[in-house]
Amino acid sequence: MTNNLYHPVEHAILAQFFKTKSLHPVEVDDLEKDVGKERDYIGLERDLWGDLDTDFNALDNAVARLVLEGIQDRLPQWGIVDKDFNALLARKISGKKKRKLSMAPQRLLSVNWATSGPGYSWPEDYYLAYVPLYDRYVVTASLDCPDAYGYSDLAIEHFPGGFKNPNSAAGKVIQNWWSEHQNPWGYFDNSLKGTVDRDTAMDWGWKVWGNNEYVEYPTQWLELLNERHNSESENQRLNS
Predict the structure, then answer these.
(1) Are 132 and 101 spatial neighbours (Cβ–Cβ below 8 Å)?
(2) Full-prediction pTM beyond 0.85?
(3) Every domain of the chain and the residues it spans
(4) What digits encode the pLDDT tens for the residues 180-189?
(5) Using CA atoms, how far apart are residues 69 and 94, in angstroms rounded to an integer?
(6) Residue 236's Cα: distance from chain center in Å?
């Protein structure tokens, strides 16, 4: 049966996130069953501070881990090496569950919010994944550690699977996510190729932070704005 693509608890999590009827109903209490233990499915987990709040980020994190399961090793990772030369990593890589079908998430873009010191940055990767059976797209945001939101990965929004240009719809989701920040991200990471290029990302960002006297624009933004201004001036000269 097609609904065997997911464990019953995963069905319940997806249905609650999409605000639809579960295709394989389970009791609500089962969503919190075996939290913190090894399971053969992806369920809820406690956040960095030990909380388990489905009205906050616990549900969003479970959905993100489900759709990003196959690419965990590609997501941002913070780490240090201790005095005994042991690597300490913020992101725990869990074993992949046996599934009949992979969701094959695609990287949209990667940005860095700031560089607070040598070797310390705040990267955030955005992915788009199609969820079979539920016919929905999910947009995720992934950080290199859980310090900001209690989890490293969050599903930030979803939209129907019938969109002819899902990148455009994902762009509106990401713009809404960015609007929670007072200032723009620091720079666009060209080293991590995604389906969204730098100019498009800057256009999205300009819709959020453009022409605002209270915004501090990072160097990369000022450089691109200057490039565009010079290009427009040259076009006007050639057309005059």
Answers:
(1) yes
(2) yes
(3) 2-239
(4) 998 899 989 9
(5) 8
(6) 40
